[in-house]
Each structure stands twice: as C-alpha cells, then as structure tokens.
Amino acid sequence: MTSPSCTGVVLxxxxxxxxxxxxxGLFPLGGRRVLDRVIDALSMVADxxxxxxxxxxxxxxxxxxxxxxxxxxxxxxxxxLHSALWHAxxxxxxxxxxxxxxxxxxxxxxxxxxxxxxxxxxxxxxRGPEPLCAYYPHSCIDVVEQQLAAGNFRLGAxxxxxxxxxxxxxxxxxxFGSPDRIFANINTSADLDAAARSPDQAVRAFEQDHxxxxxxxxxxxxx
Length: 223
Description:
Layout: E1 6-11, E2 28-29, E3 32-33, H1 34-43, E4 48-52, H2 56-61, E5 66-68, H3 77-87, E6 91-96, H4 104-117, E7 120-125, E8 128-129, E9 133-136, H5 140-149, H6 155-161, E10 165-168, H7 170-173, H8 179-182, H9 189-196, H10 199-208
Parallel strand pairs: 1-4, 1-6, 4-5, 7-10
Antiparallel strand pairs: 2-3, 6-9, 7-8
Helix pairs in contact: 3-5
C-alpha cells in the first residue's frame, strides 16, 4: 500500500514590522536561523519541505528547498495557506516560520491522525487552536478558495468552515513538550533575546524530540 504524500510548508510571511522590517526568521538562535529550525522540524516528518515567501531576501536565503510566492496578490495568513495547498501535491503540514521550537514529534502526530481520519488536525495551544501549526488535507483548498472568493481573510473563519476538522487537546500536545515553548513566536527582538538565554537547553530539546515521532505500520510519518 502506497503511503499518502505530505508536504511540509514553512509560511514565511508577515511584514516583520517589530523587527524594523528585517526578516525575523533569518535571525540566528542557538547557532541556527529561526527559519532553519522550522525547516529541520518539518524535514523529520514530511516527504518534502517547501517555503512560501514573497520577500526576495527570504527566497535568496533558502538553499535546497523550493520557494514559492503567494498565488494571490492579497496579504493574509489564509492567502499563504492557499498558496501552500496550491503548490503541494497532497496534504500539508504547515508551520509559521517564527516558531523555532515547534516539535517534530507533534508534527508527526498531526500527520498520523490526519492520514487516519482525513480531517484537518489543529493542535490546541495555551491560547486555543493553532491553525498555523497544523495538518490540512489537500481537499481543504476548496473551502479556502470559497472563503477568499467571499472576501473573508480571517483564519479563524476558515477553520470554522472546515467540515472535517479535529483539535488535538492540550494535554495530548503536552506529551511533546511545553505548549508555551512549542508555540512560542519570535515577533520582536525581545522574544529572540529571551529564547536565546537558554540556547543549549533549546537545542537539546529540539535534537532529542525526534525520538518521540510516532510511526504507523507503513512508517509514513517516520521519514
């Protein structure tokens, strides 16, 4: 039996206004760029990894990965999600590029559940479901396009429109690490400084996390 394919997608968007316009994901953290940390996590569980980015500075900084701009001219997270589904062959695991401590084990769990159920799988974080760290079947593109055609660019509205969706409860997410840490965003230089205060601990957690990646019979999530 052939395993379903899954594309890991880094959404490298946003104006980075709180970094004075500098691409926040290109800053180093514990010896590696924030963007590279997200790519590494996705690489552990996805069949391929692509980057969605409109900024030429980001495109020029990525090596060995396909980088695509948004398919549509509007600027919103849901547009980036649409572009991710547009360029992927099948389902996607999407992660915002400012989540340097995203757990590969959690991503593997999202893929495993998504492939078993055919549903979009969103992990629950301390502030609610995390639609920019989630698994989406390719069929979700129809709903995304309907929403865009209606001029609705709210990501929360999109999630509510998905007929088949599941939320992985916070207690299950916590099996893969502190949810506060997993979903921590690097939005400001202060965030970056705070994350860098214990880089050795962060790096150890990141490197060891692949030991908890779930696997099924055909090993479709253990690549």
